[in-house]
Amino acid sequence: MENQTEIKPVSKNWYVVNTYSSHENKVKEALEKRIESHNLQDIIFRIIVAEQEVPVMKEGKQVCDKDGKPKTKMKNLYPGYVFVEMIMTDEAWYVVRNTPGVTGFIGSSGGGAKPFPVQRDQIETVLKRIGIKDEDMFSAYNIGDKVNIINGSFEGQEGIITSINEETEEVTVQIMFFGRETSVPVNFTDIDIIKD
Length: 196
Known about the structure:
Elements lengths: L12 E7 L4 H14 L6 E5 L2 E5 L1 E2 L2 E2 L9 E5 L4 E6 L3 H8 L4 E4 L14 H10 L16 E4 L8 E8 L4 E8 L2 E8 L3 E3 L3
Antiparallel strand pairs: 1-7, 1-8, 2-7, 3-6, 4-5, 9-10, 9-13, 10-11, 11-12
């Protein structure tokens, strides 16, 4: 009789990699080169430095260039961290943690233990803040869900989803606005689900 071992299904998840401060983009570039040289494109997928474009301010006023255009700069929302979407294999784990500038994974107990992936709702918040949408994000939302609007004109308002349009990537949220129930269209990246 053959000795059969159970094959566990593998899935891609997001992991948080700790880096030296201000080395996030260098780590991203080095890791992208290592993925290519080790031919790991089928197990390490996306590497993200969570950056957002923000206006350059001086003494409370926005700085403009010679032509009068407002100056902007990239702001790292999570200094010292890079987000990696991967299947946690021994090889992928080894390549990522041995990339120059990487100091380790968040969620690892040390001693050679592999890290735990980031929970779906936590990484979703990060991705939305930098304008990235995943197809599977929609599956977590349903009509009747209570949400918080995190960006735009209605930022800080809570409401109930009354419709979801995956084609336009918008949801309709019913909120209280000046004491009246009002339905407003909101970009999908501008909401977070409220857990009871």
